[in-house]
Write a structure and sequence with these properties.
heterodimer; A: about 250 residues; alpha/beta; Rossmann fold; 2 domains; six-stranded mixed beta sheet; B: about 270 residues; mainly alpha; MetI-like fold; 11 helices; flat
Chain lengths: ~250, ~270
Amino acid sequence: MRRGESVIDASGLVKELGGRRVVDDVSLSVARGECVALVGANGAGKSTLLRMLVRLVEPDEGSMRIHGVDARDASAAALRDLRRRTGFVFQHHDLVGRASVLTNVVHGALGRVAWWRGWAQGIAPAALREEAMGCLGKVGLPHVARQRADRLSGGQSQRVAIARALMQRPALLLADEPAASLDPAAGEEVMGVFRTLAREESMTVVFTSHHVSHALDYADRVVGLRAGRLALDAPVGSIAAEAIHALYS
Amino acid sequence: MRSIPEEGRHGAPARFDRPGAATFVVGVAAAAFLLASFRATDVSMGELLRGGPNALRILGEMFPPSLDRAWPVAGSLLQTFQMAVAGTAIGCAISLPLAVLATRHLSPHPVLHHATRVVVAICRTVPDLVWALLFVAIVGLGPFAGVLAIAVDKIGFCGRFFAEAMEEADRRPQEALRALGAARPAIILGAVIPGATPGLINAALFSLEKATRSSVVLGLVGAGGIGIELQVSMDMFRYDEAITIILAILALVVAVEQFSAWLRRRAM
């Protein structure tokens, strides 16, 4: 794969927290349209690495180009644009609980529309509201648009978080343990949404997971971390489940 | 029963620790100042007992309450409540942006954060009666001076508690909006204020209750409301009118507290 086609091109990333290297010299390249599972035990550095890619956590060392932009030296405006083009789905969904589902999805456009037009669905332009309804349709939840976000089930809540990310019109979707707080059925449902987005909309997806089955069933490639270092990087077809299990031992 | 051998016995510790020299000196000084305060302010149980018959006479003159001036009193009571509502609304509206500046993680600069905290603290520390005296001197006698005094007092109260509610609002939705490239005002309107809503409503309702009580006394310095009616009745020894006014005030304060409690339950 040519480097020009990489959506993520990170090299030698390091992050120290509390005197410990939680990410230690990690290099990662992800091509456009790839679906990558990032696996490893608790504290292996998966979430930190993912957050570093949009500078929610600042790297100490290393370089990274996201969407071809030097993310480490990006100005405030360039960083906002980079974040706008990168959907981020959090483990705990992180919706605004007291706001409606539709408002939460409209929030996804806040990186690309003027702030006063997108902070609540009530004042959003009609086109934005319709687009948000379309994103809710993609995750199968248009019927809950008027509900308060804190009244949803865990699986619904995570799907709304995905709809919010889709509203960004992202070229890259990062998901931090998207199924960790869900029951198995809801987890499969959410992972199915990621697979559909990756395969049918050619979206680049990177997700972290503790579930070996999720990594093998939904990703094209598995990247494993152990104690902050890269320990595995291979296409799904060429690795055995045992190789992933070994990361947790 | 087996007796405890001599060497295994432990005496109970002293009931109270012996105070250190500094604690002793501070304690004695505080007690001396308390006694001096009683003496300087003519605190006297004898005077209180000698005033007993006066209290009984005034109480006797209060009943039955007079309804001679019921309509003017009702009008003043309504004006008192309107002063409280207007002052609280203005105070809350100004407090909201000030609270954003006073919230550590939302303020654009630490200097602005500290400066806003100082302004809010000044508004809170100076009593509302002093603000009323000041505004009577600036805008003249009448309810507008009272509204301004209440508004400034509420800036002190709501500015602090709104900022605390914003500090305590869940940070994760805020981080989620930051991660998707939202600007600071959008994060404040879209995530901080909805997250802080219960705290904001609580503080606003408490300040309405407080404003209703304080708007009663603002009239005593000419800042409008029912206070002036009460003062006139007391000065004219019309205790039967005074009790009507006092009962009307009591009814208003209780009604506002009940309404505020009901609204708080619904909003949470």
